[in-house]
Amino acid sequence: MVRWRPADATTIVTGASSGIGRELAAQLARRGATIVAVARRAERLQQLQADAAAAPGAIIPMAGDLTDPTFRQQIIDRVQSISPRLDLLVNNAGIGGIGPFAEATPQRLRQIMEVNFFAPVELTRLALPMLRVASHPVICNISSVLGHRGVPGKSEYCASKFAIHGWSDALRAELASSAIQVTLVSPSTTASEFFDVAIETESAQSQHRRSAMSPASVARQAIRAIEKRRDEIVLSPGGKLLVYLDRCCPWLANRLIARFG
Ligand SMILES: NC(=O)c1ccc[n+]([C@@H]2O[C@H](COP(=O)([O-])OP(=O)(O)OC[C@H]3O[C@@H](n4cnc5c(N)ncnc54)[C@H](OP(=O)(O)O)[C@@H]3O)[C@@H](O)[C@H]2O)c1
C-alpha cells in the first residue's frame, strides 16, 4: 500500500494559530515537512515558527482571513514560490456556534458557512492543480462527529460539517482515478480555544466542555490517517458510538439526543 510521507512534503495547514491546527503544523514540522501555516493572528503564527525552529521541517507563517478570496489566492501563490507541487492540504480552520437556531441571527449562519464550508472548498479548488502534480497527495478535511449526526443547539455548525462531509465524499469519488486522496477526520470535543470563540446565544453560555480530547492526540491520529491515506476516521469511543448508533438505529439515536443532547 502506498503511504503518504511527511519528510520533504510541501503542505498547507489552515487554522494553525491554535488548537488542532497548531499541533498538526508542529508535528508535521518535526517529521520534516514544510508547512504554510495559515490563520488571522500573525503573532501566534510567528510564535509557532519560533517554537519549531529546531525541527527538521519549516513553518512559513501566512496571516490573513480565509473568507477573503484574494487571501486564498495569496496562499497558493506563496506555496508556488516554494515548490511546484503541493503534497498535503489540511482544511482545519473552523468556528462554532452554540445556542438555539431560533435565537440566533442570520449573520451567524453566514459566518459559520463562510469559514467552515466555502473557504476550505474554494481553497481546495485553487490548490487542485498543484496537488495533481504531487505523487501521492492528500486533502485532509477536519470535520466533526457533528458532521455525521446533528445535535440541538449547534444547528449551523452541524450543517457546515455535514456539508464538508458530503463534499468530501463526492470529491473523493471524483478524484478516484487520480493520485489524490481525500481524508475526512471527525474529532469529538477537543480542549482548544474553539469554545472561547464560538458564536453563542445568551442561553447557551457555559453548557459546554465535558470530557475532551487533547489537540495533540487529535493531530497525531489525523497524521496517521493521512499517512495511511484513509478515507475517513471518527475519533474517540463516544464519537464512534454516536456515529454508528445513528447509522444502525437512527430512531434510538433520535430519542437519546432529544432527551440528553
Ligand atoms: N474543539 C472541538 O471540540 C472540535 C471538535 C470537533 C471538530 N473540531 C474542528 O476542528 C477544527 C479546529 O478547531 P480547534 O478545536 O482547534 O479550534 P481553535 O483552537 O479555535 O482553532 C481554530 C483555528 O481556526 C482559525 N480561524 C478561524 N477563523 C478563521 C478565518 N476566518 N481565517 C483564518 N483562520 C481562521 C483560528 O485562527 P485565528 O483566530 O488566528 O484566525 C484558529 O487557528 C475546526 O474545524 C473545528 O470545527 C473541533
Automatic annotation (TrEMBL):
<protein>
    <submittedName>
        <fullName>3-oxoacyl-[acyl-carrier-protein] reductase FabG</fullName>
        <ecNumber>1.1.1.100</ecNumber>
    </submittedName>
</protein>
<dbReference type="GO" id="GO:0016020">
    <property type="term" value="C:membrane"/>
</dbReference>
<dbReference type="InterPro" id="IPR057326">
    <property type="entry name" value="KR_dom"/>
</dbReference>
<keyword id="KW-0560">Oxidoreductase</keyword>
<dbReference type="InterPro" id="IPR020904">
    <property type="entry name" value="Sc_DH/Rdtase_CS"/>
</dbReference>
<dbReference type="InterPro" id="IPR002347">
    <property type="entry name" value="SDR_fam"/>
</dbReference>
<feature type="domain" description="Ketoreductase">
    <location>
        <begin position="9"/>
        <end position="188"/>
    </location>
</feature>
<dbReference type="InterPro" id="IPR036291">
    <property type="entry name" value="NAD(P)-bd_dom_sf"/>
</dbReference>
<dbReference type="GO" id="GO:0004316">
    <property type="term" value="F:3-oxoacyl-[acyl-carrier-protein] reductase (NADPH) activity"/>
</dbReference>
<dbReference type="Pfam" id="PF00106">
    <property type="entry name" value="adh_short"/>
</dbReference>
<comment type="similarity">
    <text>Belongs to the short-chain dehydrogenases/reductases (SDR) family.</text>
</comment>
